[in-house]
Amino acid sequence: MVRANSNWYGQPIFDNISINMDSSEIEDYTTYDGLCFGKISSFNEAFYLALVRWYDYKYKNRLNLYDCSCIKLTSQYEFIPVDSVVKPIYIIP
Fold first, then answer.
1. Model confidence pLDDT, tens digit, residues 15-74
2. Any idea of the CA torsion for 12, 13, 14, 16, to the nearest 10 degrees?
3. N or C end of the chain: smaller count of CB under 10 Å?
4. Are 63 and 71 in contact (CB under 8 A)?
5. Is 33 left (phi over 0), alpha (psi -120 to 50) or beta?
6. To the nearest 10°, the Cα dihedral for 23, 27, 33, 38?
7. Can you name the CATH fold of 4-89?
8. DSSP characters for 17-71?
9. DSSP summary character for residue 13
């Protein structure tokens, strides 16, 4: 279950997710085993799309620290097919 709700039991909740990148685009992005990361902003159920705010790696010269990705939210948003969402992820600030 992935959530994007402005009123989830009185609190807004927008899940962080891992996204399976299309094989034709995988060389265009820095990925972690073919995955990119984003935060769900909303769903468009009619077209089966999710609006995602992208994460990017915080440090280009060191992608991981203790086998964890160091990432930050960007100002870029994009609609993606819902079936490219792999699973929710946990971000430690």
1. 899 888 887 877 777 777 778 899 998 888 888 899 999 998 887 776 666 667 788 899
2. 150
3. C
4. no
5. left
6. -90
7. SH3 type barrels. (2.30.30)
8. EEEEPPTTTGGGS--BTTEEEEEEEEEETTTTEEEEEEEEES-TT--EETTEE-E
9. E
Amino acid of residue 43? F
Q: Is this prediction's pTM over 0.85? A: no
Domain boundaries in the chain? 4-89
Helix (H, G, I), strand (E, B) or coil at 5: strand
Which single residue is written with the structure tokens 């609609």? 79
User: How far, in Å, CA of 32 to CA of 60, rounded?
Assistant: 13
Reading the block at residue 90, the tokens are 């946990």
